[in-house]
Amino acid sequence: MPKKDKMQPLQLYRYLPRSNCKKCGVPSCLAFAFGLISREKKPEDCPDMLKDEYRPSLDLLKEYFGEGAQVEKTGLLIDKDKCTGCGDCVIACQKCQGTIMFGTGTILPRDVPDVYKIVDGIVDVKHWESCKRCADRPEMCRVCEERCPTGALELVK
Ligand code: SF4
Ligand code: SF4
Ligand code: SF4
């Protein structure tokens, strides 16, 4: 199963009205594109996208972002339909979550429970607070996302 081809903000921007009217509550259509990626905005939050002329773009974006996705406190999105239960993310995270970089470049050990567990053949988040993204000095780690062979994991923040 291939990884999901991720659209970048400029690619998303091309599907938007590009009038920078601010009716969606952000200063520009490009800012709205970033909001789509972080799931803070939905395609239908742009009133102009509801016009007939933008219907094909709206349908495409709604299909791309899907419905009902859950953003965990770490900015993690899991598409459980894509998870094969291979456990690669569990092992990759165990290796990297056990240490954290200090400001001086020193690597410090951490004693924290595993973020992930495979339950009934599908990945589950057991301790989101162990993720390096939740540390006092957060690390914007994306090891699990990079390691997942099916694109089931996506870090959107
Ligand atoms: S409401 Fe739509 S057209 Fe206006 S700035 Fe937001 S995304 Fe762009
Ligand atoms: S981002 Fe890093 S620390 Fe957080 S769950 Fe993924 S691999 Fe683990
Ligand atoms: S989320 Fe990805 S890496 Fe983790 S068990 Fe599922 S398929 Fe494997």
In short:
The protein is of the alpha+beta class.
- Round the mean pLDDT to the nearest integer and report it: 89
Question: Which segments are poorly predicted (pLDDT under 50) over 5 or more consecutive residues?
Answer: none
Structure classification:
alpha+beta
Helix run count = 5
Number of strands: 6
The domain tally reads 2
The amount of beta strand, in percent, is 5-15%
Q: Spatial order of the strands in the main sheet?
A: 1-6
Which ligands occur here?
A: iron/sulfur cluster
Query: What would CATH call the architecture of the largest domain?
Result: 2-Layer Sandwich
Q: How far apart, in Å, are the first and last alpha carbons? A: 24 Å
Overall description:
25% of the residues lie in helices and 13% in strands. The chain has helices spanning 9-13, 29-37, 55-65, 88-97, 143-147; strands spanning 76-78, 99-101, 107-109, 116-119, 122-125, 153-155. It starts with 8 loop residues before the first helix and ends with a strand. The protein contains five helices and six strands, in the order H-H-H-E-H-E-E-E-E-H-E. The protein folds into two domains: 9-65, 3-methyladenine DNA Glycosylase II, Chain A, domain 3, CATH 1.10.15; 76-155, 2-Layer Sandwich (Alpha-Beta Plaits), CATH 3.30.70. The protein has 157 residues and is an alpha+beta fold. Strand 4 and strand 5 form a beta hairpin. Strands 1-6 form a two-stranded antiparallel sheet. The protein has a two-stranded antiparallel ribbon with strand order 2-3. The model has no long low-confidence stretch (mean pLDDT 89). The structure holds iron/sulfur cluster (SF4) (3 copies). One iron/sulfur cluster is lined by residues 74, 92-93, 96-97, 115, 131-133, 141-144.
